[in-house]
Hints:
alpha+beta
Amino acid sequence: xxxxxxxxxxxxxxxxxxxxxxxxxxxxxxxxxxxxxxxxxxxxxxxxxxxxxxxxxxxxxxxxxxxxxxxxxxxxxxxxxxxxxxxxxxxxxxxxxxxxxxxxxxxxxxxxxxxxxxxxxxxxxxxxxxxxxxxxxxxxxxxxxxxxxxxxxxxxxxxxxxxxxxxxxxxxxxxxxxxxxxxxxxxxxxxxxxxxxxxxxxxxxxxxxxxxxxxxxxxxxxxxxxxxxxxxxxxxxxxxxxxxxxxxxxxxxxxxxxxxxxxxxxxxxxxxxxxxxxxxxxxxxxx
Length: 287
């Protein structure tokens, strides 16, 4: 039981802080994974000589899909008091539209079962359809959501997230598919020249992690007893503590690190080279 002698009145900054914020209710965990990008750059360069257009972001998305497939306990949707396994590993790629002034996205289903080349081709094709409003995902919903006033929009978003994610209801006819944001979200900031950043997890996402891919930059790195300049890329990861803890995060990071170090060992053979001409040098491919 508290007594007047043991309790103290808050003053100064602590009093101001107590008046400003309530108790913490946010389950977000922020992490950073800095990787050597040399393996990815080499694979991208090789793929381009075979007519396959890849970026670091594509490979990071594939790495996330591989990591989640290897750790299926995080590939779930949450219900009160229990978790329900998802039927597939799907990665949602956030993409820029309207010359970077707008954001939209594409969910690639079964991302763990598709090659990086297949993922890239699907993403390029569907991004154009989403921006035109012809895709059966967010592209159809955006015009409807744009017309709603903010108070009603807030209610609609919460209801849609509850129905499509928690209850697994298909509202495709309204442009809102089941599990709209999949098992994980990936977005590139490298194209804007940003090396590292973290993004908030919206309550509408219902995903265990969101990964921001920074710009590939040369940095001095200790290799044995020597210092070498290597291409490095930083992944800013925001995780939801309700889905995973440090144990899971470590296992996911190990899988992502292994894939990104040598993507070719995880991918099917590339198609034959289109020509015998010497390949063009590829320097720090943009995300």
